[in-house]
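thought: user wants a sequence for this fold. calling inverse folding tool.
action: design(structure=
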């Protein structure tokens, strides 16, 4: 059908039109009616399906990318369609070429499916005609809210590679869940929670601009006086710093006020953490120390949705290294005393970088060199987990493009380039003050 349009459109035009959708394709003079347009061909296949298959087809149209059987059962079951019927319908829709298996159904990993673009568009029309669009979209949102929560907990327990793998696998549907406009207060809350749960994806894995855009759109439709809103505002301010946006200070100020009203120490402390990292990057060491001390002292030990208190202690040690090595050593001990360094590669890499920097300032070259290489291994490990998620950098950092050294440390482990510079300084000899 596309080839038949070559006389009317150039190849470049055809590619652009096909990327936007294929439902317009048609050959009006085809002898069989179902061959006259792609939509007619899809409609003919729909007419051959059983009622349960038609219902499943229509409800599956809310998925934006690959999905597994569990997701399909959650979204499609109900309203006369039993959960046990959905897997059978999936198999029949594969035979009808409505669904394409992404994995071998007989393989070790659970099977996943993708709906063709033309079939998705037709199914969305049927779903709208049945008046079930809102219900299917809502169930889709809640399923992927659970996926985002699972990814957050994986990251929080130090399973960074597993967390990013899960988000990569479900990225299209997570994006769709965030991109749709919520129609109810509970949906707005669920969508905002998804964005907050994916904080590590936006900041550490180099998706700051995308995360900031989702938060910018979702924040006005959520409640402005809740702990979740404070977390979302802080995250939006953090991401604004990562992309050097002008509204970073305003967002952080709003987050601080909401955090104070909600009694959320984690949000209050993390606002101070960001302000401290920015001050450190700008060379305002004393101000950075004040902010980072407040952050380290305020963030609860087991606070979620952001860098743990140990990262604030380690970054405080980096700020103190030049002006007060003794204070820096005490901050490092505080960073190492918590539970995070034992299982969190990010926290451990940050702490080892701070230790290496302090050792270098004290003239302990051998110890500083070993710790710097351990920090480098951690930075490369987290960068490796995120490598396929964002455009890679030659220096191996995972933060937003354009971020300075302090911002790089704030949005993940100290970048590989920063650690390489420290290693070069160590190998060059003791600093001038020694």
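)
observation: tool returned 434 residues.
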């Amino acid at each position: 059908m596309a080839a038949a349009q070559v006389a009317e459109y150039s190849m470049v035009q055809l590619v652009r039109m096909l990327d936007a959708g294929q439902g317009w394709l048609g050959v009006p003079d085809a002898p069989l009616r179902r061959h006259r347009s792609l939509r007619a061909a899809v409609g003919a296949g729909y007419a051959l399906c059983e009622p349960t298959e038609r219902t499943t087809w229509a409800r599956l149209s809310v998925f934006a990318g690959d999905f597994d059987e569990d997701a399909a059962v959650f979204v499609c079951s109900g309203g006369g369609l039993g959960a046990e019927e959905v897997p059978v319908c999936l198999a029949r829709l594969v035979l009808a070429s409505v669904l394409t298996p992404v994995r071998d159904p007989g393989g070790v990993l659970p099977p996943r499916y993708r709906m063709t673009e033309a079939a998705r568009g037709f199914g969305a029309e049927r779903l709208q005609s049945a008046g079930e669009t809102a219900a299917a979209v809502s169930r889709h949102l809640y399923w992927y809210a659970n996926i985002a929560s699972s990814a957050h907990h994986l990251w929080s327990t130090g399973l960074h590679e597993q967390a990013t793998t899960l988000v990569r696998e479900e990225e299209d549907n997570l994006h769709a869940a965030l991109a749709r406009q919520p129609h109810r207060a509970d949906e707005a809350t669920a969508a905002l929670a998804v964005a907050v749960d994916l904080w590590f994806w936006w900041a550490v894995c180099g998706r700051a601009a995308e995360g900031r855009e989702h938060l910018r759109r979702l924040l006005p439709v959520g409640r402005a006086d809740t702990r979740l809103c404070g977390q979302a505002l802080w995250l939006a301010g953090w991401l604004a710093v990562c992309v050097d946006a002008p509204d970073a200070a305003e967002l952080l100020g709003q987050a601080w006020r909401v955090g104070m009203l909600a009694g959320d120490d984690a949000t209050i402390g993390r606002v101070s953490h960001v302000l401290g990292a920015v001050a450190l990057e700008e060379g305002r060491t004393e101000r950075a120390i004040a902010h980072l001390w407040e952050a380290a002292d305020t963030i609860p030990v087991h606070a979620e949705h952001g860098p743990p208190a140990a990262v604030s202690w380690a970054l405080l040690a980096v700020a103190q290294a030049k002006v007060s090595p003794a204070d820096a050593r005490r901050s490092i001990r505080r960073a190492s005393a918590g539970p995070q360094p034992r299982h969190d590669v990010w926290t451990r890499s940050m702490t080892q970088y701070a230790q290496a920097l302090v050792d270098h300032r004290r003239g302990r070259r051998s110890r500083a060199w070993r710790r710097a290489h351990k920090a480098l291994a951690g930075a490369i490990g987290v960068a490796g987990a995120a490598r396929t998620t964002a455009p890679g950098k030659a220096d191996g950092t995972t933060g937003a493009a354009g971020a300075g050294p302090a911002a790089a440390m704030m949005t993940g482990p100290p970048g590989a380039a920063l650690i390489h510079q420290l290693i070069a300084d160590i190998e060059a000899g003791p600093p001038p003050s020694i």
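thought: summarizing for user.
answer: Here is the designed sequence. Residues 388-403 have pLDDT under 50 and may be disordered.
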